TrEMBL record:
InterPro entries: Bleomycin-R, Glyas_Bleomycin-R_OHBP_Dase. It comes from the Bacteria. This is VOC family protein. Keywords: Antibiotic resistance. One of its GO terms (biological process) is response to antibiotic. The keyword Transmembrane helix does not apply.
Length: 239
């Protein structure tokens, strides 16, 4: 029986400032393994899940960055917990918006993942593959289809403006969906608005969700959304 040997891919990301990059990754829990000053600035960091290298590109606009890397891990929630707690200790709060930031883990069809975006806009998509395909929603309707598209745009693509546009087109027919899907849609729309600093919209959809009277069984089905709603409310107090 032959043993196959696999190579290792190491992303080389651009950065505006090596110092800024290293400060962020060290705050998250990475170790600086190399730093070069001449003939050009270059640095490397390492964590048990991935090694990253950086070079300087001063005209870089983080908002227009397309640099990304998918990192598969055995337990995405454990990695998120480690990074978020480290960042909270370093910054006094979990950076949820702007650059840098970290997103909450979300279940997609193929995996459960979160995004770690550094000061230069480079994105690590960190996820754990599902053992079986997971449906975002089991319902089949115009509303559920739009919800699923919006959900993926928000949590897989990190494109909140596009996610809002899709979901807003079907909110007028929300009553046609099940109570749990309506609740999930309201929380999703609140989360989208929160990510875009649209506090009035976020609060409006928080209230829509809170007005719903869900049974214990239904609340069990939307437990993760309930937790996200609490977090959005907590942030909105400072919005």
């Amino acid at each position: 029986m032959s043993t196959k040997s696999f190579g290792t891919a190491i992303p080389i990301f651009p950065s505006k400032s090596i110092d800024e990059q290293l400060d962020f990754y060290q705050a998250a829990g990475f170790e600086v393994t190399y730093r070069q000053a001449k003939p050009n600035l270059y640095a490397c960091v390492r964590h048990r899940i991935v090694e990253l290298h950086f070079f300087v590109l001063r005209p870089l606009d983080p908002a227009k960055s397309y640099s990304m890397c998918y990192v598969h891990v055995p337990d995405v929630d454990a990695v998120y917990k480690e990074f978020s707690e480290n960042l909270k200790t370093a910054y006094g709060k979990i950076p949820a918006k702007g650059f840098p930031r970290i997103s909450k883990p979300s279940d997609l069809t193929e995996d459960r993942r979160f995004h770690l975006i550094d000061p230069a806009g480079n994105r690590l998509l960190i996820g754990t593959k599902h053992t079986v395909t997971k449906l975002i929603t089991k319902e089949t309707s115009k509303f559920s289809s739009a919800f699923e598209t919006s959900y993926r745009l928000m949590y897989a693509k990190d494109e909140p403006a596009a996610a809002a546009k899709v979901l807003d087109c079907v909110l007028s027919i929300a009553e046609e969906a099940s109570a749990t899907l309506r609740y999930r849609a309201y929380v999703l729309r609140a989360d989208i608005a929160f990510s875009m600093d649209e506090w009035t919209i976020a609060n409006a959809f928080v209230q829509e969700a809170e007005r719903m009277a869900l049974s214990d069984s239904e609340l069990g089905d939307v437990a993760e959304e309930c937790e996200r709603l609490k977090e959005i409310k907590a942030h909105s107090l400072h919005g």
